[in-house]
């Protein structure tokens, strides 16, 4: 199904680039940073308006495998010298994100931009900046790819 | 579109002007159909449409990766369940249902199998232990008293026999474990429960005379309970004595490797000095309890001309000496484990053999005869009784022919129903059944025989250690001449003949 994979990603990329060029269509605060190939894309995310993450910018890394769109892409915040992941109860300090749409609740109706918007609203609705429970244990043992983690989605409110 | 004849012609996916697959995001315009044409589907109530191939792939992924069954497959947008049609005959659905049921019951069957294996192997171990326990009791108490006490038919055994007998092999092994300082006496499980047990055979033969008697017989041989109580003291005293003998005779018993190396080094340097100074009379004392990490010591010894420091050898080993602890621990690991267990399990047989040897000797030596106090064999036994023990009672219950006797057998231990608690305890300690008191005290001579055997064994062990130590100390490397070597190659001292 690699035909579906490449055709769909090319199409999504094309739509994103069109949106980015047109300020009227563009999703506010989300910007495509890099999409050199169909494997790894980078976005920057800002939460606009009044939120705990005012004036903070985060970078999101989206990795695809040929099973896309039948399987979700691997999405995580970039952790580097320049950018840090947000402090959020569903975001581990290694950048991994615990969100059901990135696992069991993924469906092909979603898209990369839909993921970015979901994560942006997840940050916008956050009430308290705190690390996830068991962050240190998870970070010590976590695989490189967050898709290899079996998250248990227990909180639907955030 | 003709809206009046709605029922006859509802619009379908094929009536859309532009179709957009919600999975692969491909568009298809009705006026530009591809070649070959693709199949589209609208599986739900919302506006989503998809290529049938894409949807099939999505469904397969869902089933494979999330184990979702057909009933759980629905549209991600409107939640409408997908319906399937086509080749799905009854027989396939039956197969699927049966398969699901089998998978579910498979787990239960696996649990049952594991449980059965655990239970049956446990039962096997238990029965093996019971069998060994009965064998040990027979060996130690003698076949006559065993037949009287328990009978050869396990159906007759009293309830507590089923607890005591399987404990015997374990307590024998534990009694030999050097790590348990308060080691239980191996005699306790072998001896304690049986004298106070009403012999099954006698109880069956004449159910009227079921009473316990407090040591009506003379004080020799002593009551088994007393022997059991005194045994630990005898054992500890003997152990101390033996250790003292070993310490004084073979002072470097079980030398650690470091000590051995140190001693060898000392001897070599001593020989070097002897050659140089002809001081043959310096005997280096082996150093005990001295830790090898004393750096100045070898350097001192290495200097020729300096006399070896004579240190007084410690009289007794430090109890906390690591080497001794290690030696003790080593005894319960590795290959010696088999030796330990085997030796423990052989104990009753050894006791029996030693006991009969004592009996043979007693014919010639009156002192031993007095000591072991043998009796002529008891009267011939009544014919084997019908099963009445707890197992027998069970069997009887199953057969439906249960009578009053099994109840008596269950209520019997110590007969303490009407007497006070203290009296009951006293009876438990001192009382022996009539048959026990009047029978040949095989157990006594076997116990003595076992003691003799252990003493002899320890004696041989000490001798072995002493010989090994002598060999180690007296060992010299044979000095050979230069015969066969060209003498011109050697720088020899000119000697006047």
Automatic annotation (TrEMBL), chain A:
Keywords: Ubl conjugation pathway. Pfam families: UQ_con. Signal peptide: none annotated. It comes from the Eukaryota. InterPro entries: Ub_conjugating_enzyme (IPR050113), UBC (IPR000608), UBQ-conjugating_enzyme/RWD (IPR016135). Residues 4-158 form the UBC core domain. This is UBC-like protein.
TrEMBL record, chain B:
It comes from the Eukaryota. Gene3D superfamilies: Zinc/RING finger domain, C3HC4 (zinc finger). It is found in: Membrane. Residues 261-272, 279-308 have a biased composition (Low complexity). Residues 13-85 form the RING-CH-type domain. Residues 261-317 are annotated as: Disordered. It is a multi-pass membrane protein. One of its GO terms (cellular component) is membrane. InterPro entries: Znf_RING-CH, Znf_RING/FYVE/PHD. It holds the Pfam family RINGv. Keywords: Membrane, Metal-binding, Transmembrane, Transmembrane helix, Zinc, Zinc-finger. This is RING-CH-type domain-containing protein. It comes from Russula ochroleuca.
């Amino acid at each position: 199904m690699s035909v579906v994979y490449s055709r769909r990603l090319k199409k999504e990329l094309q739509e994103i680039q069109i949106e980015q060029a047109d300020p009227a269509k563009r999703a506010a605060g989300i910007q495509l940073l890099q999409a050199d190939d169909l494997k790894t894309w980078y976005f920057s995310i800002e939460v606009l308006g009044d939120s705990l993450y005012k004036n903070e910018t985060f970078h999101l890394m989206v990795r695809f495998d040929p099973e896309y769109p039948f399987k979700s892409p691997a999405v995580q915040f970039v952790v580097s010298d320049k950018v840090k992941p947000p402090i959020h109860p569903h975001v581990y300090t290694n950048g991994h994100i615990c969100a059901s749409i990135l696992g069991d609740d993924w469906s092909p109706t979603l898209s990369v931009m839909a993921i970015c918007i979901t994560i942006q609203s997840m940050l916008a609705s956050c009430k308290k900046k705190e690390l996830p429970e068991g962050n240190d244990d998870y970070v010590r043992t976590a695989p490189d790819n967050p898709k290899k983690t079996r998250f248990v989605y227990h909180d639907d409110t955030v | 579109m003709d809206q009046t004849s709605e029922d006859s012609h509802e619009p379908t996916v094929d009536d859309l002007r532009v179709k957009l697959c919600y999975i692969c995001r491909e568009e298809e315009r009705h006026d530009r159909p591809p070649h070959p044409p693709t199949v589209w589907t609208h599986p739900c109530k919302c506006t989503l449409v998809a290529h049938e191939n894409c949807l099939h792939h999505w469904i397969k992924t869902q089933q494979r990766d999330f184990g979702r069954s057909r009933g759980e497959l629905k549209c991600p947008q409107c939640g409408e369940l997908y319906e399937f049609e086509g080749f799905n005959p009854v027989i396939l659905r039956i197969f699927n249902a049966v398969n699901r049921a089998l998978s579910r019951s498979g787990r239960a069957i696996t649990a049952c199998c594991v449980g059965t294996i655990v239970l049956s192997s446990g039962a096997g171990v238990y029965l093996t232990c019971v069998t060994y326990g009965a064998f040990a009791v027979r060996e130690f108490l003698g076949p006559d008293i065993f037949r009287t006490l328990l009978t050869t038919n396990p159906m007759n055994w009293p309830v507590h026999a089923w607890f005591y007998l399987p404990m015997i092999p374990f307590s024998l092994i534990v009694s030999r474990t050097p790590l348990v300082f308060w080691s239980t006496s191996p005699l306790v499980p072998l001896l304690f429960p049986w004298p106070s047990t009403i012999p099954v055979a006698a109880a069956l033969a004449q159910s009227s005379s079921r009473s316990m008697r407090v040591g009506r017989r003379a004080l020799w041989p002593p009551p088994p309970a007393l022997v059991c109580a005194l045994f630990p003291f005898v054992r500890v005293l003997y152990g101390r004595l033996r250790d003292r003998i070993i310490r004084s005779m073979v002072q470097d018993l079980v030398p650690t490797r470091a000590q051995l190396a140190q001693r060898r080094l000392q001897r070599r340097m001593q020989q070097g000095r002897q050659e140089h100074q002809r001081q043959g009379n310096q005997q280096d004392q082996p150093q005990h309890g001295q830790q090898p990490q004393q750096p100045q010591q070898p350097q001192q010894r290495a200097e020729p001309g300096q006399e070896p420091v004579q240190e007084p050898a410690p009289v007794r080993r430090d109890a906390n000496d690591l080497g001794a602890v290690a030696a003790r621990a080593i005894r319960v690991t590795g290959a010696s484990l088999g030796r330990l267990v085997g030796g423990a399990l052989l104990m009753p047989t050894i006791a029996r053999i030693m006991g009969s040897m004592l009996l043979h000797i007693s014919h010639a030596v009156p002192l031993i005869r007095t000591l072991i106090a043998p009796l002529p064999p008891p009267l011939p036994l009544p014919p084997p009784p019908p099963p009445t023990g707890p197992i027998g009672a069970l069997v009887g219950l199953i057969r439906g022919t249960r009578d009053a006797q099994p109840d008596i057998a269950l209520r019997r231990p110590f007969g303490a129903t009407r007497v006070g608690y203290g009296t009951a305890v006293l009876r438990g300690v001192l009382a022996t059944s009539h048959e026990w008191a009047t029978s040949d005290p095989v157990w006594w001579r076997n116990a003595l025989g076992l003691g003799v055997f252990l003493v002899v064994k320890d004696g041989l062990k000490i001798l072995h250690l002493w010989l090994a130590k002598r060999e180690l100390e007296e060992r010299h490397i044979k000095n050979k001449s230069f015969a066969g070597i060209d003498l011109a190659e050697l720088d020899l001292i000119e000697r006047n003949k």
